[in-house]
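hey team, just a heads up i'm posting the complex here instead of the shared drive bc the drive is being weird again. everything in one block, sequence lines first with there labels, then the predicted structure for the whole assembly after. its two chains so it's a bit long, scroll down
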Amino acid sequence: MTTVKVNGRDHQVDAEPDTPLLYVLRDDLGLNAAKFGCGLGQCGSCTVIVDGNAVLSCVTPLLLLEGKQVTTLEGLGTIETPAPVQRAFIEEQAAQCGYCIAGMMMRTQALLQRNAKPTDDEIRAELAPHLCRCGTHMRILRAVHRAAHLMQTADASTDQRSAQ
Amino acid sequence: MNGPVTIDRRRVLAGSGALIVSFSLGNAFAQDQPVPKPPGSLATTPFLDSWIRIDADGTITAFTGKAELGQGFKTAFQQIAAEELDVPFASLKVVTADTSRTANEGYTSGSHSMQDSGTAIQNAAAQVRALLIAEAARRLNLPAENFRTDNGAVIAADGQRFAYGDLVAGDMLHAQAQPASKLKDPATFKVMGQPTPRVDIPAKVTGGAAYVQDMRLPGMVHARVVRPPSYGAQLTACDTSAVEKLSGVVKVVRNGNFLAVVTKREFQAIKAMAALSDAAKWRETPSLPKQDDLVGVLTSLPSQDKTIFQAGNRLSAGQKTIEATYTRPYQSHGSIGPSCAVAQMTDGTMTVWTHTQGVYPDRQAISEMLRVPQASVRCIHVEGSGCYGHNGADDAAADAALIARELPGVPVRVQWTREQEHAWEPYGPAMVTRLKASLDDNGAIADWHFEVWSNTHSMRPGGAGAMLAAQHMAQPFAPPPPKPLPLPEGGGDRNAIPIYEFPNAQVVHHFIPDMPVRISAMRALGAYHNVFSIESFMDELARAAGADPVEFRLKHLEDPRGRDVIEKAAQGFGWVKGQKAPPDRGYGFAFARYKNLAAYCAIACEVEVNRETGRPRLVRAVAAVDSGQVVNPDGLTNQIEGAIVQSMSWTLYEAVTFDDTRITSIDWQTYPILRFDAVPDSIIVHIINRPGKPFLGSGETGQGPAAASIANAIANATGKRLRDLPLTRKKIKDAIDA
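-- predicted structure starts here --
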């Protein structure tokens, strides 16, 4: 048994310690967002956040995750109350087939948590590990900029509320 | 015959019901001959309730036999149905391809979805609305003209409302479609033509179950296939005893050269697959052609030669003649999600959930492979990763069915590996084109000669022999003999016939039956390379004529809609005759009408070339597209943006590689594609809407023009013409240094 904290909750996982996190998330916890794309760390579809950093879950074994905090796309928001990064991708209609998008969004989230106002060049460099085959890149870039803006707006309104 | 439908009011008033109403109209048509067919896929699936259903509680469902592949047509179809039914967009749902529920619309391919299925839904919805009005008119004993529809209800002149759900009864909508419908005036559209958010995106960005990969049926097991190491390899020995003892292994399936392992948990399957792969001994035969001489290979294979177009008879009429040969390598669909399928054999019925483009052809192929009647197989489309043509989807469906047959009652999920997808998918065929043309004294093209060498561009299922699993079984099915796809749409000769007006022209298609590398349909088929060739050569001729490339195209083009997109793209780009690009940059232009009968697209672009390294970068592109009546402008824009970016990746980077025996491009390291550092600064798409005109589709109209505009911009930047795809950094550097 390995204890792994996913989206704020502890889970006891009965899987072999070399099992990549991707299969734990998808098969043991029933989470859909992290996708199998290559199993080789080449495409970014499986990206999740571990302790604040974007991580390729297809090449990260369970044994490295004891005591760490894992966040998946499901942990950001819901279809009813989407998080800023999710709102941004919806508002920009930044998907065609959408298979690669969850991974893109998780890296975006990790980026914006440490750099609230990335430049276009910084965003392109950050997304370098990610492949999109439909050619939705222009929209993805716009969605990342929009997510940055929405997160700042959300932060600002939270600050205002707490100041009152 | 093309007039609006007029409901036979006397029959309605006589209370004979809607079904009879429509038959009475059918009889009226039968007096003429021949009976005109209703439009789109209504011609083959004419009952209205195959497309539109309304339940007594008011629930509305639209049905399509096409598969949503990420193009967004599910949203567009919902707009169309809502518009013609006069209901709010959100008040209905669209059900996609399922052999038990939807029409047989063959494959979702060739940019046909809007044209076939969108047209059927539009006309069916309009005719259903007419039937509902007729029913309200019958109830009040008033002429139908006194009624209108709004927000899901028929409304009488006195304001009395009849909700659609209250009007439908029995099999009222089980009526034959009429040849013509009273469609709404585009000027009154409320839903069609409006940018509409895609219905599938919210679930996809919040972790909803959106793909076949996300299916988890109770008791589901996980399977992995061990494919042969190369085409034609024979399994000579495989001791499975050690594999069978591994943790979680449920079964090892061996059937001839078909080898698979089934386990309880997914990662167990991955480990067991590795062990089974180690245990399998194969005999391989070198059978692959020389990758570095595709021109020699393709032009020396036996071919069936056909002149597919001839205009005039003077084949060397001009003064100044130029010739060129263009080549395209085998290219990969490269889906980001490797193929996947789930199958379950229950009570003698095999149900397969698949991201195929054709549920009915897959049902036929799987039933033939399993040697059971077609009625015992059900194929349900569930979205997968974008496919861009015939990728591994159908093969994965066959794999799942073959394995699930061994485990009755148990749902089996088969997931291909990245390496399997790259090594076994049927690639876009390599092609060679040879062009020769001459210019007259006025700098106009006097004669044009075009030859194309190509395999077929479809080896899709229908027969079992198209499926890898069926080919690998102990009692194998042979792949069906390849056939050239017929014109006017064509396959290898798609867009080979020039849309321009030339006084003398000849186009020859060399169809090559031998397929040394597994190939099938890849987005745009032969149009990608043929448009790349024609539009590159038009630039070469413009240069030889000392003419501006845009002006030169317009000089040879009569089609007014074609001229409009060319002018729009040029204007949007800021194209100025004779304008020089900044240092190390070039401007390029290209145009095509997809299949010479579908959407029009023109693209102008700016490319930067690093002279030190040869690295090209698309800086910006401006496109103009005419896809007929626009349904979802944002969806159309998304398709064209995607076409430009995807085609740029094909054009600059991509080639399947192989040695004499094995495919060697088996992942994203060995088959590199576009990454974010090469994404353009901007792409702008101008849409020319044609209200009331037929839908022309948009999924494949931009790829050819994008390729040629980039090639033309590279030539403009460097002064060197590259004709051998992909236009890699090394080829550009070598050309600059030459």
